Amino acid sequence: MNARSRDLLNTSPKGVFKQFPEFSKLTINDREKYESVAKDLPPLSDLGFPTLMFWWNSLDACAVSELNGNLVISYWMPGMEDVSGLSLVGSSDVEQSICEIFDWQASQGARPMITHVPEFVISRVEHPDMFLCTPEREFDEYIYRISDFYPLANIDVVRRKRLGAFLRATTGKSVTIRSINLTEPDNVRTLLDAVDSWRQTDRLNESVAMERDSIRVAIKDHAALGIRNLCIFVDGELQGFCLYYVSADGKYAVITNGRANTLYVGTFEYGFCMFAGVFQEDGMDFINMESDLGSQYMRSLKLALGPADYFRKYKLEPAYASEVVLR
Length: 327
What we know:
Blueprint: H1 3-7, E1 24-25, H2 31-38, H3 49-54, E2 63-67, E3 70-75, E4 85-89, H4 94-107, E5 114-118, H5 119-122, E6 131-135, E7 141-145, H6 157-169, E8 175-178, H7 185-198, H8 209-220, H9 222-225, E9 228-234, E10 237-246, E11 252-260, H10 267-281, E12 286-288, H11 296-305, E13 309-311, E14 313-318, H12 320-326
Parallel strand pairs: 11-12
Antiparallel strand pairs: 1-2, 2-3, 3-4, 5-14, 6-14, 7-12, 7-13, 8-9, 9-10, 10-11
Helix pairs in contact: 7-8
């Protein structure tokens, strides 16, 4: 657990949502209400309102409730029931809250289990022998220190070679980094066309239909969700972009989606470093690149960038669950 997570353990919702086991459905109009409750939580992407809305809200399924001053979040994704479930977020009476969730699940004939539990919550468990705690490596979020990527003099030799390849390939060309106005239909069409066309060019741009849908929602509802964008243009042609939002404390850029054309070698690395420069100018210190969802390619790519830390997550079950399995 990093220092920031330890500093933000004292969070307490104040009766904004229904009490567990009842749930309040989250809609795009609930951003202010949700963020009033979650504003002091560590900046995990899976706790961010934008991510809840365009990733975990398929079929309007995203819902939250309160339990002993904590949040219970219902993460559910159609066709991915193995990674769906309830999660607990907070620091108040954590063990009691976990047991209450288990008891309720058992009363419903469901398997007692909570998923995607952040490390800062696990650290509040006083009797770990009561629970089976399984790391969810595929949901760990990658954290990068912006000063490792900008100024460019700070980057390591391997990244410098990739940047050199991009700079040589674009010698004599106009390279610009800027955001575009997503209220203009032509700009929206440019991004969505890039998502579709670049998908055929490289594993970096591979995506499932649900992810492409999430990009469309992020773009369409960018104003309501607080989504910003940065783009790379070479001679006026789009070559890469990222969609992101800023954490409540203003210190993290949470990149929710990113794409890079493969026309020029090193576009991804160049874009990441230059985007880091913009984030730095805006007062941010870290980038959250979300999880790899178990993709070995994305894991290799994100590890190669050199994360400074992780926001780790776990699955919790009662300790007696192992005895049931053995029987």
